[in-house]
Amino acid sequence: MNYQELASRTLVKSIDFTLTDDELLLLWNAIGVAGEAGEVAELAKKQIWHRHGIDKDAWKKELGDILWYIAACCTVLGLTMDEVMEHNINKLKARYPDGFDFDRTKFREGIAE
């Protein structure tokens, strides 16, 4: 079996659409969020799993970078961070009305996503 050849059948061969400036900015910032989230995961791996010790300044830097990209996404979408945070709190209240509960993580039907 030639995995690469078989997998390539599902490659996008060309993109036949043009992105708007806002779409490009949103894409760039979404990729930035993902990249910075990877850096946070790397901090957790090294500082916790590898037992290097927690460096709060490093976490502050990386979490701040994530916030920057999130703020940029909000700006492009015409949202405020307050709107996004309020929406998230409302979702969490619906999902966990009495606070976090492991059992509610198993049965989320009908709970706002």
Compute the number of helices.
Answer: 5
CATH architecture descriptor text: Orthogonal Bundle
Shape: extended
Uncertain runs: none
In terms of DSSP E residues, the strand content is: under 5%
Residue share in helices? 55-70%
**CATH fold descriptor:** Helix Hairpins
What does this structure look like?
The protein has 113 residues and is mainly alpha-helical. It has one domain: Helix Hairpins. The chain has 5 helices and no strands. It has helices at 3-7, 21-49, 56-77, 81-95, 102-106. Helix 2 (21-49) runs antiparallel to helix 3. It is extended. The N and C termini lie far apart (40 Å).
Which SSEs are present, and which pair or pack?
Elements (H helix, E strand, L loop, with lengths): L2 H5 L13 H29 L6 H22 L3 H15 L6 H5 L7
Task: Provide tags for this entry.
mainly alpha; 113 residues; single chain; Helix Hairpins; 5 helices
Produce a short descriptive summary.
The chain has 113 residues and is mainly α. It has helices spanning 3-7, 21-49, 56-77, 81-95, 102-106.
